[in-house]
């Protein structure tokens, strides 16, 4: 099963994607995490990537596609993948379709988590992540606090704020979303693959609720 997660930065697609990957027993690939790992390794590729990520703009397609496809060719991706953060523009989506087609595979569904820009900004400013690459749990000081202040519940590592989760970079990332990634909603809709979930800060709908909805849909 190949699932694409769509949504603005901070919409919760990473959290939902991770839960779905556990539920369906398939790999979860986050292009943002993949990139942050390259940045941590501090080689030349990492340096190039860092310039784009810190500005909140897209890493060039050729590099992105090369690194994501390398990851997709690994053994744990054979039975399916939750793709989170890739594709992020039409060129990447078309490339992904071709890549899967060559393997006689295809996207089964694209899940869009839809929130307003103002809700997104509120959510991202209070987002904290576990920097332990084996854990990567995501918290929110508003609605998903760690039990102990500033410490990851799962592994005990000190939580951090992502460099690009500061207000200026968030605004740039939202602009990038509107200019490039939003088109993907129509792209998958026209292929009849879109499953849109409307969320807002007051709806009380949690990531768990969204996961349940998707599980139900696939049982049918
Ligand atoms: P978020 O969805 O919260 O913005 P991600 O972790 O998905 O964060 O991405 C962080 C950054 O990594 C993006 O702002 C962008 O610079 C880069 N990035 C991630 N995925 C892609 C992609 N598919 N194509 C180009 N750049 C990407
Ligand atoms: Zn942790």
Number of spatially distinct domains? 1
Portion of residues in beta strands equals 5-15%
**Secondary-structure arrangement, i.e. CATH architecture:** 3-Layer(aba) Sandwich
What is the count of helical runs? 9
Q: Rg to the nearest angstrom? A: 17 Å
List cofactors, ions and other ligands: adenosine-5'-diphosphate, zinc ion
Instruction: Look up the CATH topology.
Output: Rossmann fold
Find the count of extended strands (DSSP E, 2+ residues).
7
Describe this structure in words.
The protein is an alpha/beta fold. It has a single domain (2-119, 167-219), classed as 3-Layer(aba) Sandwich (Rossmann fold). The chain has helices at residues 13-24, 31-41, 44-55, 61-72, 90-102, 117-125, 167-181, 183-190, 207-219, and strands at 2-7, 27-30, 81-84, 109-114, 127-129, 138-140, 194-198. It has a five-stranded parallel β-sheet, sandwiched between helices. Helix 1 (13-24) crosses helix 9, helix 2 packs across helix 3 (44-55) and helix 6 crosses helix 7. It is globular. Adenosine-5'-diphosphate binds at residues 9-10, 31-32, 35, 52-53, 56-59, 64, 85-86, 88, 92, 164, 173.
Topology:
Blueprint: E1 2-7, H1 13-24, E2 27-30, H2 31-41, H3 44-55, H4 61-72, E3 81-84, H5 90-102, E4 109-114, H6 117-125, E5 127-129, E6 138-140, H7 167-181, H8 183-190, E7 194-198, H9 207-219
Parallel strand pairs: 1-3, 1-4, 2-3, 4-7
Antiparallel strand pairs: 5-6
Helix pairs in contact: 1-9, 2-3, 6-7
Bound molecules: adenosine-5'-diphosphate and zinc ion.
